[in-house]
């Protein structure tokens, strides 16, 4: 069965500190992995996807199939990064996304 | 384009009442989904549709019905509301099957906050 695990409910860091939001998954097929972000009072929006290997707002995420992980990283956190972050696993072909329970990132000045 | 729209934004129901949460998209997307968001549980898929006339159950379908008579609309019906259905509901749409391409991104609506007393 598909499963996404985000072990941290809350991650609190100071501005300028590095950030790593953990995500582990279980899936028997070839995974499609995403990070979504939800800023306060805003709708959920895509942050980045593993297949494009892009960097958005300074965030990167590398798919590690050996460790079944897709951790989200940023070298220097900013206050505006404070939000709820969800890791999601795509069921390719059927448009189903399985979400993790989310990690709230708080960046303090 | 308005993207994905949801109505109402807020709703309070009494146990046993019925209601329909509306979702519409103007991007001609084939795929639409309903999720509920609960503290500590993330987003869970309720129902989804891969095109007009085609729907299927997600992870937590009990207590909810859907239909997809048009490409644009995907309403979610609560036939007899229960306090356990108190949640924030999100509708999402995307153009094709998930492949990681930019055009396949799921777009989410603003959500409906439902309270069942």
Structure explained in plain terms:
The complex is a heterodimer of chains A (109) and B (117). Chain A has strands at 3-5, 10-14, 19-21, 24-26, 32-38, 45-49, 60-61, 72-74, 83-91, 96-99, 103-108. Helices cover 0% and strands 46% of the residues of chain A. Chain A has no helices and eleven strands. Chain A is mainly β and 109 residues long. In chain A, a hairpin with a 4-residue loop joins strand 9 and strand 10. In chain A, the strands form three sheets. In chain A, strands 2, 5, 6, 9, 10 and 11 form a six-stranded mixed β-sheet that branches. In chain A, strands 3-8-7 form a three-stranded antiparallel β-sheet, with no helix packed on it. A two-stranded antiparallel ribbon of chain A has the order 1-4. Chain A starts with a strand and ends with a strand. Chain A is globular. Chain B is mostly beta strands and 117 residues long. Helix content of chain B is 0%, strand content 50%. Chain B contains no helices and eleven strands. In chain B, strand 4 and strand 5 (42-51) form a beta hairpin. Chain B is globular. The mean pLDDT of chain B is 91. The interface between A and B is medium-sized, with 26 and 29 residues.
Identify the overall geometry of chain A. Answer: globular
Q: What is the quaternary state of this protein? A: heterodimer
Low-confidence stretches of chain B: none
The general outline of chain B is globular
Mean pLDDT of chain A: 90
User: Total number of helical segments of chain A?
Assistant: 0
Number of strands of chain A: 11
Through-space gap between termini of chain B: 36 Å
Strand content of chain A: over 45%
Pattern of helices and strands of chain A? EEEEEEEEEEE
Name the chain pair with the biggest interface and residue counts per chain. Answer: A-B, 26 and 29 residues
Structural class of chain A: mainly beta
Point out poorly predicted stretches of chain A. none
Proportion of strand residues of chain B: over 45%
Please work out how many helical segments of chain B DSSP would assign. Answer: 0
Q: Which structural class fits the helix and strand makeup of chain B?
A: mainly beta
* Total DSSP E strands of chain B: 11
Q: Which radius of gyration of chain A do the C-alpha atoms yield?
A: 13 Å
Summarize the helix and strand pattern of chain B as letters.
EEEEEEEEEEE
Largest sheet entry of chain B: 7 strands, mixed
Q: How far apart, in Å, are the first and last alpha carbons of chain A? A: 41 Å
